[in-house]
Amino acid sequence: MSWRSGWALLAALLAGCGPAPEVAPAPEGVPQPESVAVPEAKREPPPAVRLVPVETRPFEEGYEAGYTKGLGAGKVGAKLPPTSAAEEIARAEAGQDAARTERWQRGFVDGYLDGFRKVVTGQK
User: Fold this and answer.
1) Does 92 fall in a domain?
2) Is the dihedral of CA 26, 29, 35, 40 positive or negative?
3) 100 belongs to a structural domain
């Protein structure tokens, strides 16, 4: 393709770019669509969503207890225990204490594995 044919192509493309055609006004009695912008007076405030507070204290306490236990149980070069083994330890630690719920146990498992991993790999 030579440069002359390139200019011809550009001229042909630009020839189609003219002003937009005018739109005839709607006949009397035909409702006009509202503009996209909503006037300030019609705007409604966003709905207020009230959330129930989530109690995270049991998880955090379990995590701290598990992390401490995992730091003590971990040995350099040891293999990371499976999650099921950590869950058994969490159930044993929870015992009959009613405050150590399932959330506490999940926190314990996460903390135990993180503490163990920190000792084994030196990372978190």
Assistant:
1) yes
2) positive
3) yes
Q: Which domain holds residue 107?
A: 57-121
Dist. CA 80–CA 87, nearest whole Å: 13
Structure tokens at 2: 């030579």
Question: Is 84 contained in some domain?
Answer: yes
Provide φ and ψ at 78, rounded to 5°: -75, 160
Cβ-contact 103, 59 below 8 angstroms: yes
pLDDT at 33 over 80: no
For the cut 70, the answer to whether the pLDDT of residue 34 exceeds it is no
Locate tokens 């730091």: which residue? 71
82 is written with which tokens? 């499976």
Q: What was the pLDDT predicted at 2?
A: 62
User: pLDDT value at position 112?
Assistant: 95
